[in-house]
Write a structure and sequence with these properties.
alpha+beta, Rossmann fold, D-amino Acid Aminotransferase, Chain A, domain 1, Dna Ligase, domain 1, 3 domains, six-stranded antiparallel sheet, 10 helices, globular
Length: 325
Amino acid sequence: MKRVIAIVAGGDTSEYQVSLRSAQGIYSFIDKEKYTLYIVVMHGNDWHVQLPDGGETPIDRNDFSFVLDGQKVKFDFAYITIHGTPGEDGRLQGYFDMLGIPYSCCGVFAASLTYNKFACNQYLKGFGVRVAESLMLRKGQAIADADVVEKIGIPCFVKPSLGGSSFGVTKVKKAEDIQPAIAKAFDEADEVVIEAFLDGTEISCGCYKVKGKNVVLPITEVVSHNEYFDYDAKYNGQVEEITPARIPDEVRNRVWALTSAVYDIIGAQGIIRIDYFITEGTKINLLEVNTTPGMTATSFIPQQVRAAGLDIKDVMTEIIEDKLT
């Protein structure tokens, strides 16, 4: 009998639509001869399954099941592709842990840590990982423009500490734009990061580890046509994504080694993606760790899987079977 897989998408942040697109990508990648797939969409208290006939039916949150043709259907595995709360910050992982349902990504601690960009970078800094200078504000806190200029410098980036897809992000080039940028970021999250500008080459590297197998994927170089790698660059084609990246072999090897090490430091599981900036030609600066990376057909991870000569269907099977065996 086929195992029943939930592809869990949606969520409660601005990345809701991005998550639904990732769910469609994952649905297309997973082996349908081996697994029975359903997309589960979550938004607030509305949890429902998308049915093959185009309809939908509610999820029973007591045991994460649903009823189809009068029969209760239980899931054997959940592939989490929510970008944002509750799927990227550890909440959903804790729920599945209590129900005993295996899932695709890291556990509660790693998810909650990496979802908070400031906390994750400061944590990794303690392990010797180079990160940009930054400071964090919580809702209700304020900072003078002069203090930002003195401590972080101009230009700088102001962004939500929680979230992704460049929602709420501003590249600040003038001191008078600092406060509006902070207000914009607070519209997305209750914590805001002010981060020093890094001048160099932006890259991204995927990695996954399953029993007896460690895979670090080819690196993608990101060349945005915009001021930075913003939402339009990410999702509307205003970018060149070059895989493998045009970086020296020595730098590539160090990025691969660092990616693998960070995977273990945070206790990652499943597929992750780490974004970096290479400055001064050889200095590797970690930007952020993504434990539920985008999985549309054109996202970085599928690109890198293809560049590695791997079949994305086989990779999905490895991720699923690693938790089921």
